[in-house]
Write a structure and sequence with these properties.
Length: 327
């Protein structure tokens, strides 16, 4: 159930009177209160509290939103920054000796609940119940602590997921249905973490897909170069450019299949078997395995084209050398 604007305005005024710190969203709320000329004396806190009854099904404002704009985050520096922003109220999840994920609760509130933000070492971030204006603050953190400068400025449009989210205490367990995530308990952090891992893996794969699209565009001249070599024994693609394309192809293949953990089940799934079903549903929903196979198939085609052209270059060099020796 969506909150009424009047409830937002009342809540903003109440928080303004308290000593709690506030977010940029709070500033917008206070400005909205001023614009709508509501007097503090007219506001009854009980009106707001009754707007969302969390014992009944309710719609999460902001839904579940995930994106990835860098291949890697410096989690140590990021945690230090989050500790200062959230007074140390930061949960960390490790894989071995390294931080694999961080969790904080957002400063924006919905009813009596707060939103959740998960940051992952693979560069992904997943938001639950966080409005768009507050997500911008996290984007700035990603750009600041992203370890891969080649991708940190890329457009996020093709590397994100945006699901509606509902909470229904009456259901037995969380599940996906028609692009909607149904949750039983808004504060079941481990369940949210499991789904977030799946979305983080998917958005990272989306980032690789975008990188491959760029590589395919760069290889657009390769078929013509092969044809030119066959007809005129001369390629329109220089050896230097060919070597550069081969190097980029190798880097992408290594990143996808060796360095990344796109297809690995996260540690939380092994440690807490109860969250495995919703994690697997998430993986199926985003078609992670199919997309990974398609990515490797596209890379294989690029590899074959470059191998053919490289072979033609080598044959030409050998032919010219033979002519030089005989001549």
């Amino acid at each position: 159930r969506r909150l009424r604007l009047s409830a937002w305005l009342r809540y903003g005024a109440i928080r303004h009177m308290s000593s709690e710190r506030y977010s940029p969203a709070d500033s917008l709320i206070r400005q909205a209160s001023k614009d709508n000329e509501l007097e503090i004396g007219e506001m009854d806190p009980s009106d707001f509290e009754n707007d969302v009854d969390i014992t009944k099904p309710w719609v999460v404002e902001g839904g579940c939103y995930a994106y990835c704009i860098t291949f890697q985050l410096d989690m140590t520096l990021l945690k230090a920054r989050l500790d200062s922003l959230y007074d140390g109220d930061v949960r960390k999840y490790t894989k071995g000796s390294k931080i694999d994920a961080l969790h904080v609760q957002s400063k924006a509130h919905y009813g009596s609940e707060r939103g959740h933000i998960f940051y992952f070492s693979n560069g992904a971030t997943v938001f639950w119940g966080v409005p768009e204006e507050d997500r911008e603050e996290s984007k700035a953190l990603l750009r600041r602590f992203g370890a891969d400068r080649k991708t940190v400025g890329m457009n996020e449009d093709h590397k994100r997921h945006d699901f509606e989210c509902q909470v229904d205490p009456s259901i037995d367990k969380a599940f996906f249905k028609d692009d909607v995530i149904e949750l039983k308990d808004w504060n079941n952090i481990l369940e949210l973490l499991a789904v977030s891992y799946g979305l983080a893996q998917s958005t990272q794969l989306s980032l690789f897909e975008t990188t491959i699209d760029g590589l395919i565009e760069k290889c657009g001249d390769v078929p013509q170069a092969i044809a030119d070599h066959s007809i005129m024994n001369k390629s329109s693609l220089s050896v230097a450019k060919l070597k550069k394309l081969v190097a980029e192809l190798l880097e992408v293949r290594v990143n996808i299949n060796i360095r990344s953990d796109i297809l690995d089940k996260p540690k939380i799934v092994w440690d807490v078997p109860d969250v495995e079903p919703i994690y697997m549903q998430c993986i199926e929903e985003v078609e992670l395995y199919k997309r990974h196979e398609l990515v490797n198939a596209r890379l294989e085609i690029i590899k074959e084209m470059l191998e053919i052209l490289n072979s033609e270059h080598q044959n030409r060099i050998g032919h010219n050398l033979e002519k030089y020796i005989i001549g």
